[in-house]
Design brief:
single chain, alpha+beta, Diaminopimelate Epimerase, Chain A, domain 1, about 35% strand
């Protein structure tokens, strides 16, 4: 499968949406990956066995910082949040460290969903804060499964699903998720997919995003879990693409007033990987105008692939 590449490939290990190592969502970033085939990238991602591995290539347009391809252990994704946030921080650190030390740095990344306009700034010793703006707002591709179908698929009582105006929904921000509001954190943490019913309920969605208003920290708006479907892993400790798509949920069920809003999201605590994601959204004429996600990135290791 592997033919020799022109030079060893450097990779970096980062924890994304975390303020210290071994929290948040771990990520591998492979630089200068232009010589790799899709099959090779998939094999490397399977070898790292993290929820995602991102490969940086030369951009098609030289004014941009990089082109990115993102792989789970099982498939390629058009967009994923934590790899893009992590890659933004890494590009800023490795290519613009002096600027990053003094002020913020703009990064543009080419992805299948479009050009992602990103920002990075130093956030303390060894930490970078990175933010990624979506090229288009989240949208709803279809109706959600019924509460009864989701309750059966998640091994939950139907009465636990839904609170206030919130009902199950489906939104896409480069990847499709089924959003399931859950009344209590205890119920959210007890959810367990039934293999056959889970796949039937999700269809083309890559995961179900359960969320509750019962948070661990008073500054958080929701506490969430993402149970994956067809990605090569069962649960994600921090899901930036789902957090971005949650802007559609917030608009649909909270009806926020015109202007800018900031939503802090908790995820991964029960997995021992506490993660904190900030969702930014602006509303104009009762519609989403801008959506971005951001968080801290903690680099902790690097190495070389010799193929």
């Amino acid at each position: 499968m592997f033919s020799p590449v022109s030079r060893p490939l450097k990779f970096h290990l980062l924890d994304v949406f975390a303020d210290r190592p071994f929290r948040g969502n771990p990520l591998a970033v492979v630089e200068n990956a232009d010589a790799l085939t899709q099959q090779q990238m998939q094999a490397i991602a399977r070898e790292f066995n993290l929820s995602e591995t991102i490969f940086l290539l030369e951009p098609r347009n030289p004014v941009h910082s990089a082109r990115a391809r993102i792989f789970t252990p099982q498939r390629e994704l058009a967009f994923a949040g934590h790899p893009t946030v992590g890659a933004t921080a890494l590009i800023a650190q490795t290519r613009g460290r002096d600027i990053l030390m003094r002020s913020g740095l703009a990064v543009t990344i080419e992805a299948d969903v479009g050009v992602l306009r990103c920002e990075a700034r130093r956030a303390g010793e060894g930490l970078v804060y990175a933010q990624v703006a979506l090229p288009t707002p989240p949208w709803s591709p279809r109706a959600a499964p019924s509460a009864a179908a989701l309750a059966a698929a998640l091994s939950l009582p139907e009465a636990e699903i839904g609170f206030g105006a919130h009902r199950p929904s489906v939104f896409d921000a480069g990847a499709t998720f089924v959003f399931v509001p859950v009344k209590s954190r205890a119920a959210l943490e007890s959810a367990k997919p039934d293999p056959a019913l889970f796949a039937l309920a999700l269809r083309d969605a890559i995961g179900v995003y359960l969320y509750t208003l019962e948070t661990l920290e008073p500054t958080s708006a929701i506490h969430a879990r993402m149970l994956a479907h067809g990605l090569g892993f069962d649960e994600d400790p921090a899901t930036g693409s789902a957090a971005a798509a949650f802007a559609g949920v917030a608009l649909a069920f909270e009806r926020p007033e015109e202007g800018e809003h900031e939503i802090r999201i908790e995820q991964g605590d029960a997995m021992g990987r506490p993660s904190r994601i900030t969702l930014f959204m602006s509303v104009e004429n009762n519609a989403l105008a801008d959506v971005a996600i951001g968080g801290l990135v903690c680099p902790y290791g690097e190495g070389v692939l010799r193929l």
